[in-house]
Specification:
Shape: globular
Order of helices and strands: HHEEEEHHEEEHEHEH
Distance between the termini: 25 Å
Strand order of the largest sheet: 1-2-3-5
Number of strands: 9
Structural class: alpha+beta
Largest sheet: 4 strands, mixed
Helix content: 25-40%
Oligomer: single chain
Radius of gyration: 17 Å
Length: 218
């Protein structure tokens, strides 16, 4: 992929100025106790990235005029299924991003370092704490039956705030943290708008460019 993966990792670690944003290490003196644990996790993730191969893309399992289904592989080789169906209007402004789970996790943790410690979302928690989300057991049960009833894609938005990427969820926080906490290799998400799509793809995407949703349903 034209060394896209190596370039992406370099950008995450502030080794190039080719982006208008950066993901830098925070001043630990100003962090809460939990945020200091998050900083430790970030440091471990960065070390693990050094020799980490690019994960496989989500597998396009089924594609019809009514629905698109992807197969998601976890690190333990188990498979689960996610979908986007045409029951909702397919917008020219909607894109699919194939997300590298570990890079998104890193980016969400970086967001947590600049958040109010008392107002952090579950998506900004450490992996081992994500199951404390009240909806987590519900979505875990749904994933177990996802072959028969695939899970809808999460909708994630991305913008720039103070030169740093900022993430928000229209829906699908619990779906996303379940995938993160269970070490999915990669998974598809949806987003609206070229700016959000390009940012998400540049930060954590596995394809050269975002995939237009209309392209999948043609």
């Amino acid at each position: 992929m034209k060394n896209l993966y190596k370039i992406l990792l370099a950008r995450l670690f502030n080794q190039t100025n080719s982006k208008k944003y950066n993901i830098a290490t925070s001043n630990t003196k100003s962090l809460s106790a939990y945020q200091k644990l998050i900083q430790q996790e970030i440091n471990i993730l960065k070390l693990n990235f050094k020799n980490r191969p690019e994960p496989k893309h989500p597998e396009l399992f089924k594609q019809t005029s009514n629905e698109v289904i992807w197969r998601i592989q976890l690190a333990n080789q188990e498979y689960y299924y996610m979908k986007r169906d045409s029951g909702f209007n397919i917008s020219q402004n909607e894109y699919v991003i194939y997300i590298d789970t570990e890079i998104l996790y890193l980016a969400l943790l970086q967001n947590a370092l600049t958040s109010n410690p008392n107002e952090m979302f579950y998506s900004q928690w450490l992996r081992q704490n994500m199951s404390q989300d009240d909806k987590y057991p519900i979505i875990a049960k749904k994933f177990l039956h996802s072959l028969d009833n695939p899970i809808p894609l999460a909708e994630i938005n991305c913008g720039i705030c103070d030169s740093l990427p900022s993430f928000s969820f229209t829906n699908g926080i619990t779906r996303t943290i379940w995938l993160i906490s269970n070490y999915a290799n990669s998974f598809p998400i949806t987003t609206y708008g070229k700016e959000s799509a390009n940012l998400l793809n540049n930060i954590a995407g596995l394809t050269d460019c975002p995939i237009a949703m209309t392209q999948l349903f043609n």
